[in-house]
Write a structure and sequence with these properties.
Helices cover about 35% and strands about 20% of the residues. It has one domain (about 5-155): 3-Layer(aba) Sandwich (Rossmann fold). The protein has helices at about 15-30, 65-75, 100-110, 140-155; strands spanning about 5-10, 35-40, 55-60, 85-90, 115-120, 125. The mean pLDDT is about 95. Helix 1 packs across helix 4 (about 140-155) and helix 2 (about 65-75) runs parallel beside helix 3. The chain is globular. Helix 1 links the parallel strand 1 (about 5-10) and strand 2 (about 35-40). The two termini are about 15 Å apart.
């Protein structure tokens, strides 16, 4: 059976959505990986245990992931997700917030979802302004990130 991956994101101006879609495109380059991309508020929690890997993405909001994504992680903690792969990604504007939201997502996942495995260190993608666009040279990193995770969970 093919490994199944869900990429869940929250996005205000579409930048984090674009990152999520580009990561998924990278995953689809690895044969035999099923990938679904979904906005956090549209995710059916009952179906989450069917996935082998769960990727979570959020814009950085005052050095933090969004409230919607944090609440979603809290809900994941009530599901049987032991042994599932996780990875975090985020977008940021200011250099000082580089990796802040992503690291906090990883920490929250490891605390709330015991027994989960980190598929890869988190990815932080720079945007040029509050509404974007994504900085030049950043999208190829998303594709590579997706490929790396797909290869890892397939192994």
């Amino acid at each position: 059976m093919s490994p199944k991956v869900i990429v869940v994101y929250e996005s205000k101006y579409g930048n984090t959505k674009l990152v999520a879609e580009t990561i998924a495109a990278g995953m689809r380059e690895v044969e035999g990986i099923e990938t679904v991309v979904s906005e956090v508020k549209e995710v059916n929690l009952k179906k989450i245990p069917d996935y082998d890997a769960i990727l979570l993405g959020s814009p950085t909001h005052i050095g933090e992931p969004t409230r919607g994504i944090k609440k979603f992680i809290d809900k994941l903690g009530k599901l049987p997700l032991e042994g599932k792969f996780f990875a975090a990604f985020g977008t940021y504007l200011l250099d000082k917030s580089f990796e802040q939201a992503t690291k906090k997502l990883e920490k929250r996942i490891s605390e709330k979802v015991p027994g989960s495995k980190l598929a890869a260190p988190g990815l932080s993608i720079r945007v040029k302004g509050m509404k974007g666009p994504i900085s030049e040279g950043e999208l190829p990193k998303c594709k590579e990130f997706g490929k790396k995770i797909a290869t890892q969970i397939k192994a």
